[in-house]
Amino acid sequence: MAIKTYGLMGADWEERVNFERLRRERLARIKALLKESEMGALLCFDMNNVRYITATHIGTWAMDKLARFCLLPQDDDPINWDFGSAARHHDLYCPWLGDGRSRAGISTLRGAMLPEAGRAEDVAHKIKVELEMRGLENEPLGVDAIELPVLFALQKEGIKVVDGQQLMQAARVIKTQDEITLLATACMMVDAAYEELYQAMKPGMRENECVGLVSKVLYDLGSEHVEGVNAISGERCNPHPHVYTDRALRPGDPVYFDILHSYMGYRTCYYRTFVIGSASQAQVDAYKRCRDYLDHAISLIRPGVTTADVVSIWPKAQEFGFPNEEAAFALQYGHGVGLSIWEKPVFSRLVSLDHPEEIKEGMVFALETFWPAADGWSAARIEEQLVVTKDGCEVITRFPAEELLVAGSRYYTATGPLPATRETQSNRNNARFNGRNLEKVVASARGEGVKG
Q1: pTM listed for this prediction
Q2: Which of 107, 237, 367, 402 could form a disulfide with 379 if both were Cys (CB 3.0 to 4.6 A apart)?
């Protein structure tokens, strides 16, 4: 499988992403799985699932509202209920939905609507009508995510609700040609963000400024949504807090980032670690071990291998300071990436050893490792996204990470450049000026002798 990188525009003289094929193949995949299941229909509120089935989108502001929904009945096309005028817009600009299949409809807005307004009952009634029209009212209805009032209203209508999440995860786990192209494009954009970040980092720059710089680069390139940028520096590196602050970078600091954004719906999860000005030997050693664990895992990836095979070569939680695998969850980790991060398959010693998943061609996932440094406060974090090919895998995150990169100015002394691997000034002083060594240095500076 050759994974290609294109520009961000369409072109009449080169086929890049074929969006009509993308829509057609996604819908065909979930229709086929629905046909094989026990479910008569699938009801989705998760915006990523709605987008997968209907190819509609109204902006990331709506992603936590559970307000819009779609119904995919057996042997039929989807019906989409959307937020106010968005339904009218889909009628005009989404001809693939078909006439009358984009409708106004609204749920409870996560409880913001008064229960007395009857929004939950209205949703349930809409679904019941469609199921009855197709003779599916007595068949199980798969649902991916749901507000409790809507669940209760569906049950009151006599509808048997079952878990539809696993069906959607099964549909999304193998990526189509166009999904892979979009995922590689999203990674290309993060390559560019890391380049700008590497050039900009210096003492005094704050974590939140790093986040702002990354966000600007990505939005300027055409990102749909910068979902998050972890920016973790200095003493905050261990333990990993998973959130940035306004801490300023200092000479000798380790700093690692995770950049999560969406291009045409398709996500990245992409860690890199740097040091500012120079690295201690403890940081260099931690990075090498972190990289070794990641490289060993990547070397195993091919169809037929399981997630258990991969996580078995990663260290146990107790080996890097945690009491159990739940406490260390997501530090040595892998997860599918598609319309959301953290899709199937999941790689974790918490679940994969006892419940392995088979790796298959066409999967796209991220593998990420962590290792704390011997100094007790710094750490390394690296992540690569990859596509499973017929005989191995191809890494689609390309910003250099083979060895620890030093960002910031290169400093020069009278005798040459300051080494890129060096202890901090305070540590060097502690080593050189202790006990009688300090007494000798002071005496020498005064031109005095020291007894003994």
Answers
A1: 0.93
A2: 237
